[in-house]
Amino acid sequence: MMRRRDMPELPEVELMCRNLRRWTSGKTIVATEGIENASQLLHKNIRTCFRRGKYCILPIGELFVIIHFRMTGKVVLLREERKFLRRKIILCDGMEIGIIDQRRFSTLEIIVSANYESRFTSLGEEVWPIHRSAQWYQSRLGNRRSSLKALLLRQDIIAGLGNIMCSEICFRIRCNPQMKASDLSLDQWGLLDGAIHEFVGQVLSEEEGDEIHYVSQGGSLPKSFLVYGRGGLPCVECTASIIHWQISGRATYACPKCQAYEVS
Ligand SMILES: [Zn+2]
Q1: Is-contact 251 244, C-beta < 8 A?
Q2: From the CA of 157, how far away is ligand 1's center (Å)?
């Protein structure tokens, strides 16, 4: 199944973590290409792979390998020559894993596990798979005058949400992305948890397989996208034409009826 995504956000990173965990857990690395100081990783047990925000983290021996995919990076199982291959890991059973990245912004860091907490002190809290209450959201976001979308994108408050998710979440709670956070009611904050879990759940259930495809690579949109990329098409709830505009230079989609809001 072809999957179409923008740059990696929480669900895409979660999928890549699941793939990495499936491919690498319990194995060791015997060789690498394109990774600095990689000799310290060799022949040590890869325990698991987990997600923190938009990072994939592999505990290997006493070290943590921290991967961030930025714009176009993704992790793939190498079965053939791949364009834009930047890093390669060869496992003890011969399996080869690559990070391909057209725009070269992805990063890979190696830290000692004792430095894990301090590495992520400026990263915000997780909102999936953990559930968060209306009060939790309101106390962190509700006293601010920034737009709802700008706040949801702040990785130092909530980790992992991205541009596509913000349009989809705002549509699901029927709030305009440009609405001032301080104007949301407690009831509206209470809808966020369900919206985030619904969207992530939909993406994870429609995506399976070894490779993520990004929206920027072209093709049709996934079913989980109710507004994103649907400018001019009828709203799934009310049939009004979906509008799109830029907030902070990023594409934003909303229904002008379901998410009506007077910008003041
Ligand atoms: Zn609508």
Answers
A1: yes
A2: 29
